[in-house]
Write a structure and sequence with these properties.
By secondary structure, the protein is α+β, with helices and mostly antiparallel strands. It folds into three domains: about 1-95; about 110-175, no CATH class; about 185-229, no CATH class. Helices cover about 60% and strands about 10% of the residues. It has helices spanning about 1-55, 60-70, 80-95, 100-110, 125-135, 145-175, 185-190, and strands at about 195-200, 205-210, 215-220, 225-229. Strands 1-2-3-4 form a four-stranded antiparallel beta sheet, with no helix packed on it. Strand 3 (about 215-220) and strand 4 (about 225-229) form a beta hairpin. Helix 5 packs antiparallel against helix 6. The longest helix has about 55 residues, at about 1-55. The radius of gyration is 35 Å and the shape is elongated.
Length: about 230
């Protein structure tokens, strides 16, 4: 009987020790998780402050910094970290202006303004991307940097319209030019009637030489293939 009681006591003690270990382990896990969450919160709050500062400075370098900061708030970096993702969402919810500032930072980085880089004919698509991005910000936004955002909306639209005008001019000018690979009928559309057309046939292929003052145009089977002065 005493032996049975001793065994029962031993089992009881072991069970209690097990419960204590589990409880201690859970407590440690909770403490560790809280420490992690607190650390992430400090990081994201600092990132928010740095974002506002970089956008306020409004230099080429600070805008690039702002873009990199904005990217740290993308969920791609937290999808495998439940604690960090929860903190990220909470910080975004805590600052009603943060979603707008994230859009603003990315729009400014896309935009290659004439203040930073010369307006070129290749920038139309970049300006369109920037315009589409910044237009995601509601017109009635009145939070942090609201005045700057409103001005940049107007500037980006102006940049896009200017760049698009350059693209349209280039396309119109290009339409007046003949290129290798163009259809043969374009020759007369652009240069008018030639002095003469020399025609030869090799096998099943037709070759032509259009003779103009000072230059020749060659075609094979109705396609422009070469120019010669």
């Amino acid at each position: 009987m005493n032996t049975n009681r001793a065994k029962t006591y031993v089992v009881f003690v072991l069970l209690m020790l097990g419960i204590m270990l589990v409880t201690t382990s859970c407590g440690n896990d909770e403490a560790d998780n809280k420490a992690l969450a607190d650390g992430y919160e400090r990081e994201y709050e600092q990132a928010y402050n740095n974002l506002v500062g970089s956008l306020s400075n409004y230099t080429l370098n600070s805008i690039e910094d702002a873009k990199h900061i904005a990217l740290t708030f993308d969920d791609v970096w937290t999808k495998d970290n439940e604690i960090k993702d929860k903190v990220r969402k909470q910080v975004i919810n805590n600052h009603s202006d943060l979603p707008v500032l994230l859009i603003y930072a990315k729009a400014l980085e896309i935009r290659e303004t004439d203040s930073y880089r010369p307006l070129t004919r290749t920038n139309a698509e970049l300006y369109k991307m920037a315009l589409d991005k910044i237009n995601q910000i509601p017109d009635g936004y009145n939070g942090v940097l609201a005045d700057a955002i409103k001005k940049d909306k107007e500037r980006i639209k102006k940049d896009y319209n200017s760049a698009q005008g350059i693209i349209d001019d280039i396309k119109a000018e290009s339409a007046k030019q003949l290129h290798i690979g163009d259809a043969e009928f374009r020759i007369k559309e652009i240069y008018g009637e030639p002095k003469k057309i020399n025609r030869t046939v090799t096998g099943e292929r037709e070759h032509k030489q259009y003779v103009y003052d000072g230059f020749y145009i060659y075609t094979d089977d109705g396609i422009v293939t070469a120019f010669e002065d």
